[in-house]
Amino acid sequence: MTFQLGSALLDACVLAIVEKEDAYGYSLTQQVQTVMDISESTLYPVLRRLQKADYLTTYDQPYQGRNRRYYKITGQGRLRLLELSTEWQQYKAKVDHVLLGGEQNG
């Protein structure tokens, strides 16, 4: 079963992956696909948006005679990831509370 979740969670996943190590588009897609259904054509606009917001930077590196574009997290990207991770934990705790029983208090 796949739950449809918003762009904030997608941003968090991308930023978390590149926080661990720089990554190129295809590898990012493969890693994100382990938690949500996404195509490369969906991911590239997200990468451009994160880059425009100064959460990611890019650099090219030769690979088998071609250049491969790698994405690297910035200091602002790390701060954004922390914000998104905190929001996710709060959201997850509320959902867990409802799914596992008990009353939800605002």
Question: How would you describe the overall organization of this protein?
Answer:
Strand 2 (56-63) and strand 3 (66-73) form a beta hairpin. By secondary structure, the protein is an alpha+beta fold. The longest helix has 25 residues, at 75-99. It is elongated, with a radius of gyration of 16 Å. The protein is built from 4 helices and 3 strands. The protein has one domain (7-81): Winged helix-like DNA-binding domain superfamily/Winged helix DNA-binding domain (Arc Repressor Mutant, subunit A), CATH 1.10.10. InterPro entries: Metal_resp_DNA-bind_regulator (IPR052509), Tscrpt_reg_PadR_N (IPR005149), WH-like_DNA-bd_sf (IPR036388), WH_DNA-bd_sf (IPR036390). This is PadR family transcriptional regulator. Residues 14-81 form the Transcription regulator PadR N-terminal domain.
